[in-house]
Amino acid sequence: AEAVPLDSAARGEKGGEGRDDGKIDSADSAELRDFLQHRLPDYMLPSAFVMLDALPLTANGKLDRKALPAPEYQSQESFVAPRTPLEDKLAGIFTEVLKIDRVGIHDNFFELGGHSLLVMRLIAEIESALGQRFSVATVFQSPTIARIGALVQTGEATDQWEMLVPINPGGDTPPLFTAFVGLATELRVLGRELGAAQRFYGISAQCCDPKRAPLTTIEELAACYLNEVRALQPHGPYYLSGECVGGVVALEMAQQLRACGQRVAMLVLLDAPPPPALMNARWPERKRDARKQPERALSRKLLDLLKRPIGSAMRVAKRMVFRMCVRFRLSYSHEAWDDYVLDIQNRARTKYIPRAYAGKVSFIWATIGANLERDARYEQAWRMVVADSEHHRLAVKHGTMFREPEVKLLAGQMKIYLAEARAAQAWLAGSPARTSQGQQPEARVVARMS
Predict the structure, then answer these.
(1) How many CB atoms are located within 10 Å of the residue 437 CB?
(2) Is the separation of the CB atoms in 218 and 273 below 8 Å?
(3) Residue 61 Cα distances to 7, 50, 97, 195, 356, angstroms
(4) For residues 441 and 421, is the Cβ–Cβ distance under 8 A?
(5) CA-to-CA distance for 390 and 415, rounded, in angstroms?
(6) How confident is the model at residue 292 (pLDDT cuts 50, 70, 90)?
(7) How confident is the model at residue 52 (pLDDT cuts 50, 70, 90)?
(8) How far apart are CA 187 and CA 179, in angstroms?
(9) From CA 12, how far away is CA 52, in angstroms rounded?
(10) DSSP letter at 386?
(11) What pTM was computed for the model?
(12) Which of 201, 8, 202 is nearest to 110 (CA)?
């Protein structure tokens, strides 16, 4: 049997009426969905099924997506209206947040277009309307009106973690943890490409509750993330990764784990720029020039700000407002949450002074639209703290590495590193003398630039 998932770009117009178009009857569809629910994470469950005699192929023997019949999403057969006042209230929240006309109680929030910023707004709206706050992990695991309503009624929210998001919790491999700059729900497509067998947890950026002081150093962020990681997996070997500033946090997580005697099997940093401390140490003239002419440097920054496009200047202004909100514990717009988090983490990266890392580190850099001269300097700076490193480049663009179709390239490279790391662990497990001497297996770092 063959199957193919359809993303939003491949969903064309709705198909014809009747059952001769290959669409599966509702009873068969429910049976298939029930079968898959015991084998796949919720977000990987198909939203529609179409039966074909064979998958259409191009002249080159590849799948011809344009020739696939379009499934009927949200058909009258599958739509289930709210049954209780609570479900009706939740449906109103869903439609308002997603800006759509109607939502069935079994419709998946993320399949309807929910993303990181909308998740934050959904959580806030539910708390305002019902007085109960859910974590991102809970919404990710229970993304429908029916399941959230059940949690509200029973009070049995699955809030085990504040930052950890179970992307693929049911696999049979050692878990991979990825530190993300925003909400780790954005890693769900990467989780699908890695496969359901690969246990995979995303780590969202710190909680942005204005009533709580944010974590402002890389060391604090790493320690906070490790509290949840080690609650799930108390002992190594650990498989870590991180994107952008999250890559720097992942490096510090690995340092703290090794300091506790834990084994780090793999460290993956995706497109991660080195902290300024490394850049200044590698090119001391950068720091000397800034100290010699502070007034000129300030005036240059102001001039650069005035020259920025309106959109860029607005982002800077929003970050200034956020800093005031943090200082005085004021509320802020959830729509600008990503800018707030990136500002905090970039300032933490600016203050961070990394220590030498004893394991092997592999860096993956996005090449589309990249500054090659800057990338070369980044590589040189990282080599100051990583004695054994390799650098791999992917034909992807920063900011879209985790989306289709580029995510396939990233997932393919990650699978290679995971397989190598697991093989190294199996070899160590068969060599007691090596582990007793305290030797660490290879650690891999895959870096993603900001």
Answers:
(1) 8
(2) no
(3) 20, 21, 42, 23, 49
(4) yes
(5) 16
(6) very low
(7) confident
(8) 10
(9) 17
(10) B
(11) 0.70
(12) 8
